[in-house]
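Appendix B. Raw example, untouched.
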Amino acid sequence: MIHKERLTATLEGDFVVFLIGMRINKPWLIHKWFPVAQAMPRMLKELGQQPDLGLLHAEMWFSRTIILVQYWRSMEQLLAYAKNKDAVHLPAWRAFNKAIGTDGSVGIWHETYRASAGNYENVYVNMPPFGLGKAGLLQPATGGRQSASGRLNGGRGGPD
């Protein structure tokens, strides 16, 4: 459903934004990149079935470079999942290193950011719930939340 009004999203407490992806460097080597591409949906399924692991929401985009934006409740939960021997991630990581390693056929990457109240802002106009708006609480971007600086000041207003 498209929300036509200006909205902003908040999330109670600190959280983590985790960007992760892969790049297909040699598209003709399907046997190299296809298993890597298949691993992330399995992880997302596992995380979706076990909300206590800490994943709040994820959005994915596909092209030669696949990008996934994830919102996590805490850094500790993200790191615990990454190291969990019983979860899908660790075997997939080991399989990548064994099959591809540093041969250059497939690139993988991630970036991790901690976010806390007053240190992030967002706005959505004519959008369905998206990104942090799906992970957190959407509310009208009015009053003190009308400008980016106002949203950064917790809705207390501020210069545009």
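End of appendix B.
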